[in-house]
Amino acid sequence: MDGIEVVVAHSERATLRVGDVYLKVDADARRLDREVEAMALAPVPTAPVLWRQPSVVALGPLRGERLARLGQPSSVSAAAWRAAGLLLRRLHDAPLPPWAGQELEAVVAELETECRWLETSGTLPPELVRRGRAVADAALRPWTPAFAHGDLQADHVHVEDDAVTGVLDWSEAGPGDPLRDVATISFGHAERLGDLLDGYGVEADLEVVRGWWCVRSLLGVRWLLQHGFDPFAPGCEVDVLRAQR
Question: Exposed e or buried b for every residue in 102-139, given b needs 16+ CB within 10 A?
């Protein structure tokens, strides 16, 4: 062991790597309980839970490489993206977890708050915020809830030999819009969306997917800035927002 690696850390959560073990620390022990329960319920491969304490869970490693990293081209094959789509379909077809998911009204309210801040703070040009908010409307409609991961970023999915070896970070899992998961995993990797949907096997409304891309961008900018991340980096949140028309 060469020391402790801080994988990600902010005021709510931190993930540390100690050798081959990942320690996930969460200020909200109930959220961590729910994450562990979601991993047990999900009919897809997840990292093995090695042990559990009130605010810490120790996870074993996953084989392979990440499906992609935001801001970088994905180096894995089309077959790996199709495998991720098939895995997502399996998750969405599973019975719903026994807790409430995020309501549409809450998403709309949060989005309105963030759009006002982005404009009044001068962080983004008002025209860009308004255009993104208009595109986001396609996603803000009633949905039939599915078992959703809730934060299925491409770098939370590990693949090896064109197969998914596991999915990380289930802290936002619960009943939700399945197309939000589709949008999240393809966020910043629009060129891979076709392969993902080929594996998913169900026709998706691309306007809704684009709407969720805008929702994620608009909701993420302030949080990322406040936690030491750069949403203006090439290929990241602001670039994704600018690409939508």
Answer: beeeebeeebeebbeebbeeebbeeebbebbbebbebb
Q: What domains are there in the chain, each with its CATH number? A: 63-243 (3.90.1200.10)
Q: What is the pLDDT of residues 140-195, one digit of tens each?
A: 999 999 999 999 999 999 999 999 999 999 999 999 999 999 999 999 999 999 99
Q: Report yes or no on whether pTM surpasses 0.85.
A: yes
Backbone angles phi, psi at 124, to 5 degrees: -130, 155
Query: In this structure, what token pair is assigned to residue 65?
Result: 């490489």
C-alpha–C-alpha distance, residues 158 and 45, integer Å: 10
Q: pLDDT digit string (tens) for 75-102?
A: 999 999 999 999 999 999 999 999 999 8
